[in-house]
Amino acid sequence: MPRRAIRAGIARAVSAAVAWLRAVSGDDAYERYLTHHARAHEGPPLDRRAFYEERERRKWSGVSRCC
Amino acid sequence: MNKIAGVLLAVAGAVALGGVALHRHEPINALWIVTAAVCVYALGYRFYAAWVAARVLVVDPSRATPAERYDNGRDFVPTHRWIAFGHHFAAIAGPGPLVGPTLAAQFGYLPGTLWILVGAVLGGCVQDMTILLLSTRRDGRSLGQMARDELGPLGGFAALIGTLLIMILLIAVLGLVIVNAMKHSPWSTSTIFATIPVAILVGLHLRRLRPGRILEASLIGVTLMLLAVLGGGWVDGHPLLRGLFDWPSLPLAGFVIGYGWIAATLPVWLLLAPRDYLSTFLKLGTVALLAVAIVILHPQIRMPALTSFIDGHGPIFGGRIFPFVFITIACGAVSGFHALVASGTTPKLIASEADVRLIGYGSMMLESFVAIMAMIAATLLDPGVFFAINTGAGVVGSAPAAAVHTISSWGFPVTVGQMQSLAHEMGESTLFARTGGAPSLAVGMASIFGNTFGRGLLSVWYHFAIMFEAVFILSTLDAGTRVGRFMLQDLLGHVYAPLGRTSWYPSVLLSSSLIVAGWGYFLYVGVIDPNGGVNILWPLFGIANQMLAAIALSVATGILVKSGRARYAAVTLVPLAWLAIVTTVAAWQKIVSPDPRIGLIAAARELSEHLAAGALPAQAAAVAPQLIFNQRLDAWLTGLFTAVLWLVILDMGRVCLRKLRGLPVAASSEAPYQAARLQPFAISDRMPQEGST
Question: Which of B173, B304, B628, B683: CA 20 to 30 A from A65?
């Protein structure tokens, strides 16, 4: 029983770490956008590529990297 | 319970700091420094940051943030605090905290370490957190806009000019660092060259093949980068290929300049964005690995606590410990540049005001810890070796025997054989006069990694460290050129409207060329300078960065006073006063000091006298006029920085005095209060839930 709890704990930690990495890198940005779009907007959302391009353009038109 | 933990922490910190300060005549262990640092950060975060957030900034979790109010699923997105922390840290952490402490190690390990800790906890972290909260309260406005709104047009203009100049100097000095790491090193050069096609491949993958699958593309890219490090070793051993990548610094500078121009005009998805993903992963991975390795290895620090160079005759850069240690270490203690990020992307991600302590104060603490690790990596080297790598040929001579003799005469014994076998171990032909900090940091990192994870791979670890720094630097170079271009286009738009259109190609070409010409000039002069160039450029960059921090702290102080919190103004006023003193004294000495190792005018005068007397060898005489011009130009620039700094401070003082006398001041630009409705959410949640109404 405790072994199962440990295994579940490890699995939870790993999935949280993966979720963190995906979110920090922007890997799940499109899915987040879709969820937002479904909730707040009507009409078709951008497709994956168009969203990616728009996101990169926006990200790199301000100060997003430092010394 | 919390109080007991706090007291224990304070005791541990005091013991460790005492250990660091009192271990004078015997080598100390790096663990003392790490422990002292961690305790100082923990105390700063637990007590000072909490007090500043609650009392001074009056952080209000019941107040809706712009991310909640304008949530558009794109730039305004309420984000879990640990994810926003990751974003913010990745944005503020660059090569700065790696280079500064390495150079400042010429004073010994103690001054730089103390400044990194004190400067961060009382200055840099406070600045980052304050600007982050102020911008969050103002719909994510930029530092320049806040300066204009709250102080007046002068402050806004100063922030703009300051940012533009700092960008140019930063890129030039980083370009110089990378050129010095590549010169006559086929392994480094071929590895760094190979990272460019790797980034382009990742860019194509992300746009054409599998749009937006950043994690998988980055994994492929990082693997290819590691293979590029190994491939560089193969190139280095190949008789024909070796010659193809063995270049002196001037053509390499030309390459960096050409690369910067091309990269700035290409679409972002092709080169800049993918390389940034790779550098972010490398950054997070290497920082974590380095921390683990330092704790496992807990090396002895071999540099003395203080060296005799605190009196101003240091070989890496001239100038006394005061003010120059505070100028040399900007990033890692206080970095004005962070104020631009803290008033840019990050405030639009803040889900709750309660998060600004972790994201603003906490990210800077981690960056400061990176600087501490760089200091450890520099000071665990034999001091003689450290000085042999970091001192320019103009100071100790280009012949190894002469260099070794001079450095040993300073009391730091080193032999030609020792340097040769070290260079051989690192897979380089020579490590003499590799100024700029990157090679000595790489030697330090290689010995940490090599001794922790298996010896014999030293040369691979060395070139991994060089690649890691290069990827950082190329990212900054490319992103900085682009930001500079946008600012210039904004300025030029006032002269001729079409030039302000960021997507009009002639304007893109013109403004990119101007920015690249700006930093390319300083890079070129740095390369032809026999003293290595870093000794002039780095202090100039430090002054510019501290000036920007002073502008940010002026804006913060002005807002505190205007909002009726004058009695807490010391929180930002004390670091501001310290930075103003430090930058002004440093600028004054850089301009008027009669010592040509410090004073720019004196150096120009000495060089022109030598030139006129025919005392220079032909090669030096050929470049002397350009060096003389550059030293005078740098003196003017330093004066300009100081003037801008004091104009902003006086403007802030004017606004504060008016407020304190009850006279009208510009209205606060703070967005009106709106109640927050967001519920707390987990990292893996797609979107935070709104409260039921």
Answer: B683
Alpha-carbon span B667 to B647, nearest angstrom: 21
Label residue B631 exposed, middle or buried (CB < 10 Å: 0-12, 13-18, 19+).
buried
- For residues B501 and B493, give the distance between their C-alpha atoms in angstroms, rounded to a whole number: 7
CB atoms within 10 A of CB B505: 9
pLDDT tens by residue, B380-407: 999 999 999 999 988 898 899 999 999 9
Give the residue on B whose Cα is nearest the Cα of A48.
B211
pLDDT digits (tens, 9 = 90+) for B360-382: 999 999 999 999 999 999 999 99
Measured CA angle at B548 (ends B542, B554), to 5 deg: 135
The pairing of strands B28-29 and B300-301 is: antiparallel
Asked, for residue B266, whether it belongs to a domain, the answer is yes
Contact A64 B77 (CB under 8 A): no
**Cα–Cα distance between B546 and B166 in angstroms, integer?**
10
Instruction: Give the CA distances from residue B51 to residues A29, B56, B252, B357, B619, in Å, rounded to whole numbers and listed in that order.
Output: 35, 7, 50, 10, 60
- CA B644 vs. chain centroid, Å, equals 21
Q: B431-468: per-residue pLDDT in tens? A: 999 999 999 999 999 999 999 887 678 999 999 999 99
In the block, residue with structure tokens 């609650």: B54
Choose among A25, A29, A60: nearest Cβ to B280.
A25
CA A62 to chain centre: 21
The total number of structural domains in chain B stands at 1
Distances (CA, A) of B404 to B102, B433, B488, B495, B533: 20, 11, 47, 56, 21
Mention every residue, 6+ apart, whose C-beta is less than 8 A from residue B481: B171, B260, B261, B263, B264, B512, B515, B516, B519
Nearest by CB to residue A33, choosing from B74, B335, B545, is: B74
The burial of B348, by beta-carbon neighbours within 10 Å (0-12 exposed, 13-18 middle, 19 or more buried), is given as buried
> Does B172 reside within a domain?
yes
* DSSP per position, B395-423: HH-SSHHHHHHHHHHTT----HHHHHHHH
- Euclidean distance between CA atoms B420 and B327, whole angstroms: 33
- The reply to whether B202 touches chain A by the CB within 8 Å rule is no
Chain B segment 406-465 residues within 8 A of A by beta carbon are: none
CB B381 within 8 A of CB B302: yes
Query: Do the chains contact at A62 and B479, CB–CB below 8 Å?
Result: no
Tell me, yes or no, if B344 comes closer than 8 A to chain A by beta carbon.
yes
Greater pLDDT, A60 or B235: B235
* Nearest by Cα to B196 from B235, B231, B224: B224
Q: Which residues contact B401 (CB under 8 A, 6 or more apart)?
A: B416
B674 sits in the region (left: phi over 0; alpha: psi -120 to 50; else beta) called beta
Structure tokens at B333: 């203690």
- Integer-rounded Cα Rg, in Å, for chain B is 25
- The torsion angles phi and psi of B457, rounded to 5 degrees, stand at -100, 15
Q: Is B338 on the interface with A (CB under 8 A)?
A: yes
In a domain, B212, yes or no: no
What range does the domain containing B466 cover? 2-184+247-660
In a domain, B363, yes or no: yes
Instruction: Please report, for the domain that includes residue B485, its CATH number.
Output: 1.20.1740.10
Picking from A55, A35, A53, the residue whose alpha carbon sits closest to that of residue A45 is A35
Q: DSSP letters of B76-111?
A: S--B-HHHHHHHHHHHH-SSHHHHHHHHHGGG-HHH
ipTM: 0.93
